[in-house]
Structure formats: C-alpha cells, structure tokens
Specification:
- A 6-stranded mixed β-sheet has the order 1-2-3-4-6-9, sandwiched between helices.
- The chain is α/β, with parallel strands linked by helices and 263 residues long.
- It is built from 11 helices and 9 strands.
- Helix 1 links the parallel strand 2 and strand 3.
- The structure holds coenzyme A.
- Coenzyme A binds next to helix 2 and strand 5.
Length: 263
C-alpha cells in the first residue's frame, strides 16, 4: 500500500505532501493520522524551520473521504465524535504549528481541503486552483474547518460560500483573502513558494514562533491595558533574547545574522 503522506526535509524546509492522488488527496482516518504524525515531527525537528504543505496529482485535496464519512455514519455516538475529533485535532495542530506553514495549492481544494489552506499561515495557488465548501450539497456542514475558514475569509464571505457551496476561482480566493498570491502554473507555483520560503528562512526562527503566538494573542481583541502590557512584555522578552541580540547586532555590524545560511 502506498504511503498517504510523503515527508522530506531539505535545507531547513520540511515538505509534507498528501499522496492519495487517485482519491484527489481526500482524507480518511489513516491520512489524518499520518498527517498529524508528520506535523508533530516537523514542528519538533530542529532541522525544520519552515513547513510546506503540498500534494501530488491534479487536485490539492478533495476534502474528507466520502467513503470514510459514509462508514463513520454507522458508528455509535461516542465513536463518531472521536472520529470527528481526529480531524479537528489535525487541523488545530496545523493551525497551531510553532513553525511557519505555507500551502502550495494546485487544482481543486474542496471542503476540508479549504480547511487545510485556511489553517496554514500563507497560501499560494495556481490559476487552475478551485475552491468550494461543498458540505451542504452533501447534507452535512463544514463544522470542524469553520473556525479556520471564517478566520481567513471573514463571516460575511463565509455566509455566502458555506451556504451556496458554489465553486470559486483562484482569483476569487485571492480577493477574499483565502490565498495570498496566485500564479499562472505549477512552475511559477514552485518559484513563488520558494520565494516565500526564502523570506521566512531569512528571519529569526524563535522570532517566527513568537510572532505567530503574538498574532494569535492580539487578533480580534480590543486594545485593552492587558493587551498593551502583554505586547510590551513580549517585545521586552525578545529583545533580551539571544536571537534578538544577535539580530540587532548583525544589523548594526552590517553582517548576516547567524541563522542565515551561508550559500
Ligand atoms: N471522497 C472520496 N472519494 C473521492 C472524493 C472524496 N472527497 N473526491 C473524489 N473522489 C473519488 C471519486 O469518487 C472517484 O472515484 P472512482 O474512480 O472510484 O469513481 C475518483 O476520486 C475520481 O474522481 P472524479 O470525480 O471522477 O474526478 P474528477 O477529476 O472529475 O473530479 C473532484 C475531481 C475532486 C473535482 C470531484 O471528485 C469532486 O468534486 N469530489 C468531491 C469533493 C467534495 O465535495 N469534498 C468535500 C467532502 S466534505
């Protein structure tokens, strides 16, 4: 049996590839488990500084495997909740990665595939990418992906696309903020992902993790005295850190910081 997930670590970049092209990379319990394991491994491996989520074949991801969903419909209440929590846990893991994550999107990304894109920090899509929140067409709802999708595109756009289940283009995904960049084809997709990865690798690895935590702590919160104190404590901690000292010293000494690899 082929592996559902391929992983590779190359010069600080951890590449996770969904490898179920014959099922359009739809995820069943085995793929969810393997993807969860790969995410933990990448987040804890000190050789990995950036994680790219990609997939084989013509589709990025056709969402949940409908055969698995159909099987799961026969489970008892406890089993079905445990099953759904597996998917919820994997998405949360992806969303909460300490390392920056980049989605490389080609072809259709439907249902949970949109969830994967939304849970990554940065998403780049080819012009042929297509998106849809098809769940209601199937008589179900985009439940576990909803926090990530709504955070990415906002409640107003979620109301339209979750309720109509319409397919939308890469250009529309760009317009509504689901993806950050669109490029003509697969060659340009690799180039654009490479440029983002290079930008991330130029930055302090600890700072990137702390920056992700900062965004999560302040997003959608009023600027209260507590938030001001929290943000002040965060910058005070980072500027006194070894990485902060090195980064500022490197700038003032007109040299590259230690985390930038020599070519
Ligand atoms: N779960 C299980 N099987 C799936 C699947 C899914 N989410 N998506 C595709 N497949 C299977 C098809 O059933 C088909 O199986 P078969 O060869 O045994 O008939 C095979 O993958 C090829 O799919 P097909 O529809 O023939 O390919 P296509 O290129 O015409 O279309 C998609 C590809 C992804 C656009 C289309 O399959 C699709 O819309 N899938 C449903 C996606 C969806 O709504 N996901 C949300 C689930 S919550």
């Amino acid at each position: 049996m082929s592996e559902t997930i391929l992983t590779e670590i190359d010069n600080g970049v951890g590449i996770i590839t969904l490898n179920r092209a014959d099922r359009h990379n739809a995820f069943d319990d085995a793929l969810i488990q393997d993807l969860s394991t790969a995410l933990v491994r990448m987040d804890t491996d000190s050789d990995v500084r950036v994680v790219v989520l990609s997939s084989t074949g013509k589709s990025f991801c056709a969402g949940a495997d409908l055969n698995w969903m159909k099987r799961a419909a026969a489970y008892n209440a406890e089993e079905t909740q445990r099953d759904a929590l597996g998917l919820a846990g994997m998405l949360r893991m992806l969303n909460d990665m300490k390392k920056p994550t980049v989605a490389r999107v080609q072809g259709p990304a439907y249902g949970g595939g949109v969830g994967l894109v939304a849970a990554c920090d940065i998403a780049i899509a080819a012009f042929d990418a297509q998106f849809a929140l098809t769940e209601v067409k199937l008589g179900i709802i985009p439940a576990v992906i909803s926090p990530y999708v709504i955070a990415a595109i906002g409640e107003r756009k979620a109301r339209r696309y979750m309720l109509t289940a319409e397919r939308f283009s890469a250009a529309e995904a760009y317009r509504i903020g689901l993806v950050h960049e669109i490029v003509p084809g697969e060659a340009e997709l690799d180039e654009a992902v490479g440029e983002i990865v290079d930008a991330l690798l130029a930055n302090g690895p600890v700072a990137l993790g702390e920056c992700k935590a900062l965004i999560k702590a302040v997003a959608n919160r009023p600027i209260t005295p507590d938030v001001m104190i929290d943000t002040a404590q965060r910058i005070a901690r980072l500027r006194a850190s070894a990485e902060g000292k090195e980064g500022m010293a490197a700038f003032l000494e007109k040299r590259k910081p230690s985390w930038v690899q020599k070519q």
